[in-house]
């Protein structure tokens, strides 16, 4: 069989399959006019649901790579125009809105897992700051390499931002600038656990964090999450039983993916537990800026005493755009030094002009102004999504309006398969991430969707909810009529 | 003792020490007016040469952090102006010309290990392309994340650039865009060796490559280098004896640090050896653009048959500026997939607008034009450096005019300690990297300097050679008078 499935675990299977097919076309092994295998045949040979193969074919058909001819089958398009090849037409992350890049798929929509809207970021300010940084004497004279901890101006700007906004009393020496929070997580794991030791993580939780920990040699073990966030008692049991458990990773502000905020009692218990068992706390505070109701809850790291090992991880990507890759970690010197030394080995240093440009945007207040503006817009989108969901589904689904953040956690009737619904929605052009994406074990997958609302305007959100309704599975109806 | 030495292995000890002292000042543990320990006392307590402590104190004195009061000692300066703190005044890489950033040290000079001159890069073009990329529909709509292999436009641009310029017949599917070549080396090691297996490297060679391999879990073993480059017969012996040897890393175009080009016969032998023992070849072609005499020698990867595992690594940082971090790797799909998957775990993806901007600069010819201009300028600087060295030192040193690249390898009389000379030069304000920086074992350190000439204009090169002459050790005189 010519078509193989690439093994990337983090994205929907139909996207992987579509990528594999596209690769064959790009390499010329599938030529214009060639017939693709029937969906039934391909599904069988790849051990997939036929729906999945259908979804991949439809995605590529919408993008113009394939042509479906009723009752004859699916073929590689004859007129593959060069301009289509010149842009990345197959989304490689589930959240990527190929829809809006490629005019042939204008009707399809992607519900991200919670990404900001790149359209509202301060483009002109960033472009200007970047130009200024490229022309600055410090850059022109930088014949050598920079500090693996990042540009000092940016570390200072972040330190004062974090002190003012988040109660983290910190200095530039406690800050490591990374590419995005992904790298900060990888480095954190390498600094606080030895290969083979264990990091406890929220489940459901954030799979890319798990991937980063595993890449650092750690083992990952799940701890359940409920309406108060991480189940700290469960973690306590684990810590007693597992001497190799050395760290816990969590997203206390708005738990990923369920959006709940870790309760105050649990925070105190967690600190106590960490102290008793010598656990390091890796706190991923990826969307601290986005709190709509009340004040943001201060980070755990802001309350941890000096005897605890905390690595506080944040990101400017959630504030600006996912393609602007600046994250950071705050930790005490012994940990930060290990992280910086590993960072130098894997990546030497960051992009100087980009780091300098972002330092300028923090220092001159642009970033704070943008955060205020984004907060207003995203709150309105959250409210609109909630209205639409209530209007469309009533009691058939449930959710708690998130107090902040960029996504909503939509719980389905337990009799409904979120995964099957998502596949059906995808085939109809709507990408949405079901609970199975967020668990270590598919058997524990909650029947739920994580729906990012920040990156879509209100009209698109309405269209998305409509699509979701149209692709509702028969089981939903059953469940409702019980 | 308040002052501790930070452990960073890659840079001169006096720089580490200066950084440690600065950290104490920044933290407020050393206050304006405080006396520093005497150099003899501190040297003893830290087990350093007194010269090293002297050099650190002098560096900080030149930068205005410390004040030396004759016969009283050294003190933290009283008037530490805030503006000095606002820029990174202590160079954290030996090559960083703090001299030109900080006006108080205008008299000091840094000879890099071979970095380009950021002043001549096409700033305006890059700034424009970046602004364009930030406003492009593809970026505005990028609510999600991108391909961990890098922006498709950049992968296509690099593939066609490498095909045209370097005879690597390659497509976008064979290219992985990384942050800089550092990340490409780390990912390459992870893809071609298992933890605990061995990678053979040139010695003298490139220590940051070794650091990246070790970070990936590999062991590193040195292979000598002579006037023809890597000693392939020595490697053959190793390969026969060491079953865990799985890869060889080399810089065949201009060997780092000695600048010699690997001979044609050795290239063929190496390919044969790699085939026989199943060795992967990691080829670091960091300065392919810079060949002054004759045509560039084509990469080994361009001649390797499909049955060999090669990872070809390159960088745009050497073409533009060290602070612009774009590198890439070319490998066959099985290897590239492993690298991309690891990249996603440690760093998710690159900066979209920067990648798009560089794609544009390749596509519209800006990068090629810049390479031609830079080649002319750097060749003139190489020639000027060679003249100055000959004029100043005559037979006391020797070098082979490098056929290309950004640095010259200056061999000293074996009776002269390059390290001691470098420390003395540093104390007088001239940074230069002695052979000990490039060996796995200090006992094998060649008495030589690697002198980057590209980042300094001709007047500065002359000044640097003058400084070098003024700090010549007595041993040099001895050696010459023998």
Question: Can you offer a commentary on this structure?
Answer:
- The structure is a homodimer of 482-residue chains.
- With 482 residues, chain A is an alpha/beta fold.
- Chain A contains 18 helices and 16 strands.
- In chain A, the strands form four sheets. In chain A, strands 4-11-10-9-8-5-6-7 form an eight-stranded mixed β-sheet, with helices on both faces.
- In chain A, α1 crosses α3 (50-62).
- The radius of gyration of chain A is 23 Å and the shape is globular.
- The model of chain A is unreliable at 81-106 and 475-482 (pLDDT under 50).
Give short descriptive properties of this protein.
alpha/beta, disordered C terminus, 43% helix, homodimer, 482 residues
**Proportion in helices of chain A:** 40-55%
Q: Most extensive interface, residues per chain?
A: A-B, 86 and 87 residues
The first-to-last residue Cα distance of chain A is: 45 Å
Average pLDDT, all residues of chain A: 87
Instruction: Tell me the strand percentage band of chain A.
Output: 5-15%
Assembly type of the chains comes to: homodimer
Major β-sheet profile of chain A: 8 strands, mixed
Helix vs. strand class of chain A: alpha/beta
Q: Count of DSSP E strands of chain A?
A: 16
Pick out the low-confidence regions of chain A. Answer: 81-106, 475-482
Q: What's the gyration radius of chain A in Å?
A: 23 Å
| Shape designation of chain A | globular
């Amino acid at each position: 069989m010519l078509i193989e499935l690439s093994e990337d675990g983090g994205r929907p299977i139909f996207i992987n399959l579509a990528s594999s097919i596209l690769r064959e076309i790009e390499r010329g092994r599938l030529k214009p006019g060639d017939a693709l295998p029937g969906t039934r045949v391909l599904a069988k040979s790849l051990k997939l649901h036929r729906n999945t193969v259908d979804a991949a074919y439809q995605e590529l058909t919408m993008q113009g790579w394939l042509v479906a001819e009723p009752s004859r089958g699916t073929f590689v398009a004859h007129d593959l125009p060069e301009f289509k090849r010149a842009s990345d037409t197959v989304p490689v992350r589930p959240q990527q809105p190929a829809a809006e890049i490629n005019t042939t798929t204008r009707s399809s929509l992607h519900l991200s897992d919670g990404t900001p809207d790149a359209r509202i970021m301060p483009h002109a300010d960033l472009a200007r700051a970047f130009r200024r940084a490229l022309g600055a004497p410090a850059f022109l004279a930088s014949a050598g390499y920079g500090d693996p901890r990042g540009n000092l101006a940016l570390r200072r700007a972040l330190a004062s931002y974090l002190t003012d906004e988040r109660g983290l009393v910190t200095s530039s020496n406690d800050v490591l600038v990374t590419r995005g929070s992904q790298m900060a997580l990888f480095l954190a794991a390498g600094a606080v656990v030895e290969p083979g030791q264990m990091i406890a993580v929220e489940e459901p939780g954030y799979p890319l964090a798990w991937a980063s920990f595993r890449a650092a040699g750690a083992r990952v073990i799940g701890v359940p999450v409920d309406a108060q966030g991480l189940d700290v008692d469960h973690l306590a049991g684990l810590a007693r039983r597992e001497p190799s458990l050395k760290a816990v990773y969590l997203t206390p502000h708005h738990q990923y993916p369920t959006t709940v905020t870790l309760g105050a009692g649990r925070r105190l218990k967690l600190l106590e537990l960490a102290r008793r068992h010598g656990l390091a706390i890796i706190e991923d505070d990826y969307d601290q800026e986005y709190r709509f109701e009340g004040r943001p809850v201060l980070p755990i790291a802001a309350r941890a005493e000096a005897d605890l090992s905390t690595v506080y991880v944040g990101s400017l990507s959630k504030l600006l755009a996912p393609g602007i890759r600046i994250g950071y970690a705050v930790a005490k010197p012994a940990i930060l030094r290990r992280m910086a030394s590993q960072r130098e080995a894997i990546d030497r240093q960051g992009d100087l002009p980009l780091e300098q440009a972002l330092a300028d945007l923090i220092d001159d207040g642009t970033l704070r102004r943008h955060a205020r503006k984004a907060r207003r817009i995203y709150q309105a989108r959250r409210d609109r999504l909630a209205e639409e969901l209530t209007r469309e589904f009533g009691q058939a689904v449930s959710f708690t309006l998130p107090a902040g953040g960029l996504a909503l956690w939509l719980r389905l009737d337990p009799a409904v398969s979120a995964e099957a619904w998502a596949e059906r929605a995808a085939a109809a052009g709507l990408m949405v991430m079901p609970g199975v994406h967020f668990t270590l074990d598919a058997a524990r997958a909650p029947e739920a969707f994580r729906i990012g609302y920040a990156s879509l305007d209100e009209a698109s959100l309405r269209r998305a909810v409509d699509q979701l309704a149209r692709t509702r599975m028969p089981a939903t109806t059953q469940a409702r009529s019980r």
